[in-house]
Amino acid sequence: MVTPTRNGAAGANKGNKFANGAQAAGAAAGGFVGAMGGSFMPSININVNRPSQHRGGGGQQGLLPPPEFSSPAQVRNYCNTLRAAGVMLSMEVAMAAEIMQSILAAVPDPEGRVLGSRMRAAKVSRKMKRSANALRDAAKNAAACYAVFQQEYQEEINRVRHRARKPKTPPMNWAQQ
C-alpha cells in the first residue's frame, strides 16, 4: 500500500530510500541509536587524509623518520620520534578503549543478565587497553634504547666530540711582557 506524502504525491521512490550511501550510513547509525533505547550516543567524526600526488618525494611519509642510523643525531632523532609517537598513540588508544567500553555497556545483554552488558563491554575493551599499555611500553623502550646507545658507544661519541671542538686558544698572560 502506497501512502501519500505531505504534499499529497504518492511515495514512488520510497523503496529506493537508501540508494544514497550517505543516507544509508545515517540511517544505519540512526537505527543503531534507536536500538540502544535512546541512550546517549557521542558524535563520531572520521577524517580521511589522502596524500597529494604532487609531492616531489614520491612516497608517503609515515609517523617515523626513515631508519638511518649513521650518526648519533639520527639515532637520537629516531628514538625521540618513536617515543613521542608511542606516548601520543598510547593516550589515544586508551581514550578509545574507554569510549568503546562506555558505548558497548549501553547495549542490552541478550540474556537479560543484570550486569551482563557491562561485563561484555569490559571484556572487549580490555584488549584495547592492553594495546594502549603496549604502546606506552614501546615509548619507554624507545627512550631506554637511546640511553643504552649512549652508554655503549660513549667512547666513540666522545672521540668524535673532541675532534669536532675548536682548539683552545692559550689564555693571555698579562704578567709576561
- What general outline do the C-alpha atoms trace? rod-shaped
Question: What structural class do you assign from the helix and strand content?
Answer: mainly alpha
Mean pLDDT: 75
Q: From the alpha carbons, calculate the radius of gyration and give it in angstroms.
A: 30 Å
SSE ordering: HHHH
Uncertain runs: 21-38, 54-58
Question: What proportion strand?
Answer: under 5%
Count of runs of 4 or more consecutive helical residues = 4
C-alpha termini separation: 117 Å
Helical coverage, percent range: 40-55%
Q: How many strand segments?
A: 0
Main sheet: strands, sense, barrel:
none
Task: Note down, in words, how this protein is organized.
- This protein has 177 residues and is mostly helical.
- 55% of the residues lie in helices and 0% in strands.
- It is built from four helices and no strands.
- The chain has helices at 21-35, 72-105, 116-152, 154-164.
- Helix 2 (72-105) runs antiparallel to helix 3.
- It is rod-shaped, with a radius of gyration of 30 Å.
- Residues 21-38 and 54-58 have low confidence and may be disordered.
